[in-house]
Specification:
48% helix; Alpha-Beta Plaits; alpha+beta; Copper chaperone CopZ
Length: 90
């Protein structure tokens, strides 16, 4: 199955790297694609449980779902996550 999730605060490939690495660890997720320009994440998954956990993980990284409040704390977390993703790409 493929599921699209739209999130806030995605700025670049560094964000995408962090998101991909973390969501790949979910059981049943076989592929994660991130489109920073649209703030879109496409999950290829077998298990519905992955969909239950993904929003919580994304919020903890600073990328809340598009339809929820985007706090200053979320924005700050996303900058840290982005920086980690940029370092992981190098």
């Amino acid at each position: 199955m493929k599921t699209e999730i739209f999130v806030q605060n995605v700025k670049c490939g560094g964000c995408g790297t962090t998101i991909s690495k973390r969501l790949q660890k979910l059981e049943g997720v076989s592929e994660v694609m991130v489109d920073p320009a649209e703030g879109k994440i496409i999950l290829e998954h077998q298990e519905e449980a992955a969909l239950d956990q993904a929003p919580k993980i994304l919020k903890s990284l600073g990328y809340p779902l598009a339809e929820v409040s985007n706090s200053l704390r979320d924005k700050a977390k996303s900058f840290v996550s982005c920086g980690i993703g940029r370092l992981d790409k190098a």
